[in-house]
Structures are given as C-alpha cells and as structure tokens.
Amino acid sequence: MYRSQSVCVGSSSGYTRARRGAPTVVLPCLLLTIAAILACAIAPPSSRADGGSARITANQATAMLSERVRAIHAETPPSRYPLGSGRDGVLHFARGWTSGFWAGTLWRASDLNGGEFGDWATTATLRHLGHERTDTHDLGFMYGDSSVAAYERLCPDSTRARLCRRLKRSGLTAARTLLSIARSARATGMIPTRKHSCSDCLAYDESETIIDSMMNLHLLSWATRMTGRQRYRETARRHAIRVAELLQRSDGSTAQAVEVSRVDGSVTDVHTHQGVGDTSTWARGQAWSIYGFATAGAEFESARLLGVAERNAAYVADHLPVDGVPLWDFDALPGSPIDVSAGVITAAGLFKLAEACDRVTGACTQRSRWVELGKRMLDAALANVNPIAPVGFLGNQVYTFGGRDTWDDDGELVFGLYYAFEAIELSRRFAAV
User: Fold this and answer.
1) What pTM does this model have?
2) Top-level CATH class of 2-430?
3) Eight-state DSSP code of residue 407
C-alpha cells in the first residue's frame, strides 16, 4: 500500500524539502517476533507524552532497537533510503544527506548483534554507491557512514579484494569532491555547503558553512590514511579551526550558519536555519559540535579543538532539562518538543570527548564529568524506546520543527537510530567508570 507524502531532502541542516507527490510506503502494523515479545517482557514502560518514564538498560534497548531496524528493513524497497517515521506509522524515504545513515545503521546493528545485519549492511552500502561527486559538504555523512564504514569492517579480510577496491574508490572519490568544494572558497578557510550555490547568500561570491560540517571531516582524515596525501588532513584541520572561530560563542553555545565572502573570507552574516532564532542554540547543532570537535581534537591531537568540545559540553551540562533530554532548541519555551536525536548524538560525542581526553595528555580538565553526562543523556534518551508495537520505535526526535510537514516534529529518524547504537557501544567502554 502506498500513500503520497512529502519527503525531506537536501543538506544536513534539513531545511530543503521536496514537493509533495513522492510515493512512500505505509508501514502496516507489524507482527511481533519472538525476540520482540521477549524484549517487551523484560522492558519497563518507556517515557511517554503523559510524563511517565522508567529506565531501560542498554541491553534491553539494543534488543528493541535491533527489532525496529529489522522491521524497517522488511519495509524498505531496494535502493530506497529511510529517513524516518511519524507517529502515524508512515515510513518516509529521502536521498541527500541522510541517505548513508541507512547502511550505517545496519553496520552499527551488526556490530552489536552480528547475524543478518552484516549482509543487509553490505547490500545497502553497494546500492548506495554512485553519488560521490554530488556537490555537497555532506559527503562525509553520505559515504563515511556507508562506504568507509564498510571498508573498515570488511577489508582486513584479504579475500574481499574486489569489493574492497570498490569501497575504497567510493570513499576516496567522495573525499576528492570535498577537496574540490573547499577549493571553491579557499579564502574562507572552510568547506562551504556547496561549490556552486548558496540558497540564502546575498551575493553570488558568498558561501555558507554550517556547524553540521564538522561531522564530515573524518572522511578527509581517512583519505589521508589511505593515500598518505596530507592535503586531505590539512583541509580538515584548517576547516575545524575556522569553524571554531566563527560559529562558537563565548558561553560555549554554537551558531548554526555563517555566510562569508569567497573573495576575502570576511563574514557577511551569522544565522540559523533550524533554531528558534539567530542567537539561540539549536540542540542538534550543539550535538554536532561536541562530536565533531571531539573527533577533530583527537585526530589532530589538538588541545585547542578539545577545549571547544569541552566548552560545548559544559554549556549542555548547564542548560540540560532535569529529565536529561534536550529541547529541540536550548532556548525553546518550556513544554516545547524534546529532541532525542540531539540527545543520543550528544551522548556519543561526550564519550568520544572522554576518549580524546585520554589520547591527548593534559588537554582536558573534566574527563569524568563528560563520561557521567554521556551516561545520563543516553539513559534519558533510551527511556523513549518503545517496548510495545512498533517495538523499538525511538520517537520524540525533531528533524525540522514546524513548517509544512509535522510528522518530523516528534517522529523517529534514521540518524537517531544510528547514533543510539553508537552511543550504546561507546558507553560499554566506560562501564566501570
């Protein structure tokens, strides 16, 4: 059964939308498998709109989230990329920046479960090949979490030489495209959202960079490891330093977007696409910043970049609601929707930050604080995992609040599933802390 629904596409800021009329699959009520029934039996009720909540352990959440991914896989046609589901059970698909998360989520599920997830992840990764030259800074999301993720898991096995060549070629092609995009705005010191266009810029010779871009740098670092060519790594390092200068505020909060002159790098505007306002702190953007600067600080062994991540983390700690899940914007009014995706991304980023603190001696001042905050935020997010049909539904995620579509104001998003799995896996490294 199919129904006409709008599908979100475009950049990682999530503000570009396709016209209505794209067919999406309507998920029927799924029969619970034995595994799901067992998960329900051991799981306490999750947090709900009526305010009730109970702790769900990481193992319980893993079982239920894995069951959810099985259900989504069963309903996903070949070469389609799930974006998420609303409370009405409609599964939405999209290309663009979120497309690589489907293969990535399957790889994450495989890491925790093994079994059929690895085969599904390989198939999804291969079907995703072919868009590595897309003019977007989001190639790290798109191919770092699919092709590169597959390469890192499969290619120590020398019997897969042909497959590994395809995966490596995919990742390196995407990385070269990022370099080309960066060269289009060399004077800015940053990778712009696109090489040839800027939807909100006031002049043709302007470019835009958003905080989400920090999540794409790992693709460039990987390319240096694969080729030995330092230009990839240096482009990533320069970008991180410049983003720290332009999108970080003195109180540790972040702005989402900056527009600059491609000619001399001068700033023309700082604003938001998804926050409450230009001076507010969009929660998912803050999460991207913590995670991105933590990984960049570790990669470059930079106390300066880790200091940015620590200031971001301290802001979250000081502004987090008592229930441990951020509102979709830290400046949103009380009672506004929470964003579980921001919660799990932040939790994963905090664990990454703690690992980076161990790697870069003397760089951090509050490592144990970030571990405890990560655990608190992960526990709070996992309380939203649904123990009843649809089992494992991880709702209360916000894609773009308001606007024409409303299903994504409190729905389930594929990248929320991805980072939930990653945060669970990372948390186990700090089990004794």
Assistant:
1) 0.89
2) mainly alpha
3) G
